[in-house]
Specification:
Layout (H helix, E strand, L loop, with lengths): L1 E2 L4 H25 L4 H29 L4 E6 L2 E6 L2 E6 L5 E4 L3 E5 L13 E4 L2 E5 L6 H12 L10 H8 L5
Antiparallel strand pairs: 1-2, 2-3, 3-4, 5-6, 6-8, 7-8
Helix pairs in contact: 1-2, 3-4
């Protein structure tokens, strides 16, 4: 089963909304000013909001640029993640456990020093591989792909599909 990134219009729409919120935060900082201590504190909160939103602009903009090259292929027992020349292959027998954390799927696998991240969709850190669900096309397809990938190897340390659906917020009855 093939999982693709979110559509380009969606990615550019979210990036544009984040740019608008960033502009509002910056204009609020200019309006409030930093003359008094209370104004400086309020401006500092707007600055933190602006930093967070600017990170989102970068992530969604990067996802927009990398959209054509990214795909996840899930077969029973094998998960292949591709983006341009980078490729990550994960065997389900190598995965010790996985869980969902803040709209991300975290897979625990033995450390492989040769594996590179496939940003912004997939990050590799030591013995973990993090897949960002919010940048993918269809959460139902992500769930079906994980089910297909995991069918070959069952473990009690795994998160079940119902927990993934609940975390994503899908209404799949």
């Amino acid at each position: 089963m093939r999982v693709t990134p979110a559509s380009r219009p969606y990615l550019i729409f979210v990036a544009t909304l984040n740019i608008l919120v960033l502009a509002l935060c910056l204009s609020a900082i200019a309006f409030v000013g930093v003359d008094a201590v209370s104004n400086a504190v309020i401006s500092g909160m707007f600055a933190l909001g602006a930093l967070y939103v600017s990170r989102n602009v970068l992530v969604f903009g990067w996802a927009y640029l990398e959209h054509r090259y990214f795909e996840i292929d899930a077969t029973p027992g094998m998960l292949t993640i591709r983006n341009r020349a980078r490729q990550i292959q994960i065997k389900s027998s190598e995965v010790s456990d996985y869980y969902v954390y803040y709209n991300k799927i975290v897979l625990r696998v033995p450390a492989d020093p040769g594996q590179e991240s496939v940003p912004p969709y997939v990050n590799v850190r030591a013995d973990t591989i993090v897949i960002n669900i919010y940048l993918l096309q269809d959460t139902a397809k992500v769930i079906a792909a994980l089910r297909e990938f995991d069918d070959a190897y069952q473990s009690k340390n795994r998160v079940n599909v119902g927990m993934i659906i609940q975390t994503i917020g899908g209404n799949f009855s």
